[in-house]
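User: structure tokens for DUF1995 domain-containing protein, please.
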Amino acid sequence: VDELRQALLQLGSGERGAGASAVVLRLPGASDDWSLPDDLWLNTTPYPRSVRQMFYTDVVEAMQAAVADPTCSLLMKVTVTPPELNMEMDSYRVGTLLELIRECALSFAEAGLKTRVCVQGSMGQGALMGVPRVLSGVRKVLTMMDWQAEVGEDYEGLLGEVQRSAAADGTDAAEGTIRFGAVGAAEVAADDDVLLLLAPQSMVGASIHEPLRAMAERAEAQGTAVILINPLLQDRLSSSG
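Assistant: Done. Predicted tokens:
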């Protein structure tokens, strides 16, 4: 029954079949009914680990399927906004966003894909120069958080020497399978397979569109997949318009 359900979903994957997908997912006799757990509550922060992991697993599987599908565009966007990941709500929790990014990056790295996690740098001029409030300090935390990449751990060496300020001889730290960067064409390395852009967004008087476009064009030209995670790309006008 599971195989039949999967075949029907593939047949109805076009725009005309979108309405029937929910009915097919509940096909009697399948090993699961694709319904949400009865004890799923989203009115507490932070969510239980099992609830967060459910969201992470869905996002990871969708990303992996899209990157592996040669018919998919190399430029992709993922929007996942339960209250803990919705940056426009008071319940937003940056720790949940960082956990999600870690799960996604590790899943690609385990598949042998060199993955760069990108957080935009400072934008604007003068008193308005800075990063969006919801991304403040995120780049530094990414390099400091537990990736299980130390000696003897599950992902030993996956980050290269990025968790050190520099290599022992004073040269730049060597990058690993998972690497970090900002937003811009210069951040794209020739051997990058996947770029994960963490919530790119404009600020008052400073647009993210130009560096983002340049980065996407360079990545696409060399066959690197670009995935925007929860982007906020609407313009934010300054007082001068």
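User: Anything notable?

Assistant: The longest strand covers residues 194-198.
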